[in-house]
Amino acid sequence: MVTALVMLNVDRKHIRNVSQSLVDMKEVSEVYSVAGRYDLVAIVRVQSNEQIADTITVKFSALEGITATETLIAFHTFSRHDLEHMFSIGE
Predict the structure, then answer these.
(1) Which pLDDT tens digit goes with each residue over 32-65?
(2) What is the mean pLDDT of residues 8-23?
(3) Distance (Å, rounded) from C-alpha 53 to C-alpha 69?
(4) C-alpha radius of gyration, the chain, whole number
(5) Which domains does the chain have, with CATH numbers?
(6) HEC-encoded secondary structure of 24-54
(7) Rounded Cα distance, 16 and 22, in Å
């Protein structure tokens, strides 16, 4: 599985609609409204890099209100859940 974090700049009046449209996509697992340089962060999880490219360049770009994106491809995933599982002793 390939995971990408996509930071989005969105026209203020379109944030709610863009958020809902993103979360409705099967490739997007989560959407966060954030403070700072970006308005939204979308977590994209797919099977290949080609699907990442298609999702962002075709599906995301079709949404009205997105003014810019920046995409980070994840190499490894570290989470509290994974760490707890690694160190559990079978409880």
Answers:
(1) 999 999 999 999 999 999 999 999 999 999 999 9
(2) 98
(3) 12
(4) 15
(5) 2-87 (3.30.70.920)
(6) CCCCEEEEEECCCCCCEEEEEEECCHHHHHH
(7) 10
